[in-house]
Amino acid sequence: MSKKDKKIEIQLSDAKVVVGKDKYDGYTLMIGKKLIGEIAELDDQFAIIKNGNVDSFYKNLEKAVEILIENYNLAK
């Protein structure tokens, strides 16, 4: 028996991201209706935000999104 491929909707939308007590321009990454991560633009870099704190920095948005999706899939 073969499994059917499931269509998964991934949405990246503009948002204000809270880092510590400050708000920065950034993005939220959603899979379906579940928020899986936030990315903030800090000093010409993209930072993955976890629990209101910076987790890691990346030079481009695509790499930050890739890492968030990878971490989400590994945690399942």
Kindly describe this structure:
It is a single chain. The protein has one domain. It contains 1 helix and 5 strands. Helices cover 20% and strands 54% of the residues. The mean pLDDT is 92. Strands 1-2-3-4-5 form a 5-stranded antiparallel sheet, with helices on one face. The chain is an alpha+beta fold.
User: Helix content range of the residues, please?
Assistant: 10-25%
* Cα shape: elongated
Largest sheet: 5 strands, antiparallel
Compute the average pLDDT: 92
Strand content range: over 45%
SSE-based structural type: alpha+beta
Radius of gyration: 14 Å
Total strands: 5
Secondary-structure element sequence? EEEEEH
Low-confidence stretches: none
Number of helices: 1
Distance between the termini: 24 Å
Count of domains = 1
Largest sheet strand order: 1-2-3-4-5
Organism: Streptococcus infantis ATCC 700779
Pfam families: DUF2969
InterPro entries: DUF2969
Protein name: Branched-chain amino acid aminotransferase
Give descriptors for this structure:
single chain; 76 residues; alpha+beta; five-stranded antiparallel β-sheet; 1 helix; 5 strands
Strand and helix map with partners:
Layout: E1 10-19, E2 22-31, E3 34-42, E4 45-50, E5 53-58, H1 61-75
Antiparallel strand pairs: 1-2, 2-3, 3-4, 4-5
Summarize the entry for a quick read.
The chain is an alpha+beta fold and 76 residues long. Helices cover 20% and strands 54% of the residues.
